[in-house]
Amino acid sequence: MKIDFLPLRDNTCGEYCLHCHAETVEWIVVDGRKRCTCSSCGREAERAVVVDPRICWWTDSDGEYWHESAGVFVRDPRGRFLFFQRTAFPYRLTVPAGHVERGEDPKRAAARELWEEVGIRDAHGDLRLVADEHLNGDMCRRGADAHRWHAYLLHVDDHRAAGNQGELTVNEEGEEPLWLTLDQALSSQPTFAVEHIIERHSNRLLRAVGRTPGEGSVQRTV
User: Fold this and answer.
1) Would you give the end-to-end CA distance of the chain in angstroms?
2) What is the DSSP annotation of 4-68?
3) For 70-109, what is each residue's pLDDT tens digit?
């Protein structure tokens, strides 16, 4: 996504229509999914171009609009991972994740998103970095098609997997939490970033998890 239609400055802030670029976007919910509508052109879209000085964003030498994100693969003692289906674009399976705020350490951003999205708190000290990659093709509801993605691993015991005070819940951007193996996740239409991290870093995600003989790197189930 290129945003050369905007006069960009460090303090630029606005939500712009994907079609006509007018700053007249309103967010709505249709069939349980968050979308946006533009009062200028009357068209709907799954996302908008959102420029927010609070989050880390930049444009590269080709004009591509980049965001910085952090996410956590939460693993239980059985080698399953915490996922949920997004109700905001992209409408796919994901892990707790979100944008890194300007000046924020990515690891702290990951811990914050974990608390905000599924209610797991005080995880910062237990997060282990799995990957730090620039992913071109990773689209988000704020209009970027490219993200620098920091992926972390958190191992939880059965008590924490159930939630410190009852069952885990997901905020308004997702449906109920699901505990899945990596193979199950790959066959359930994950987001671009989650799919990429699993396919490239499954060994690191599965390290110290008991495997049956012959198990190794995750392969896509067709």
Assistant:
1) 30
2) TTS---TT--EEE-TTT--S-EEEEEETTEEEEEETTT--EES--EEE-TTB-EEE-TT-BEEEE
3) 999 999 999 999 999 999 999 999 999 999 999 999 999 9
Element (H, E) at 85: strand 81-85
Closest by CA to 133, choosing from 195, 196, 191, 185, is 196
pLDDT at 28 over 50: yes
Tokens of 9: 């400055």
Residue 212 contacts by C-beta under 8 Å, 6 or more apart in sequence? none
Cα–Cα distance between 25 and 191 in angstroms, integer?
25
Task: Give, as one character, the DSSP assignment of residue 145.
Answer: S
**CA 144, 4, 61, 12 torsion: positive or negative?**
negative
Residue 209 vs residue 122, higher pLDDT: 122
CA separation (Å) from 118 to 3, 33, 36, 41?
32, 19, 25, 36
| 44: its two tokens | 């709907």
* Dist CA 130 CA 112 (whole Å): 17
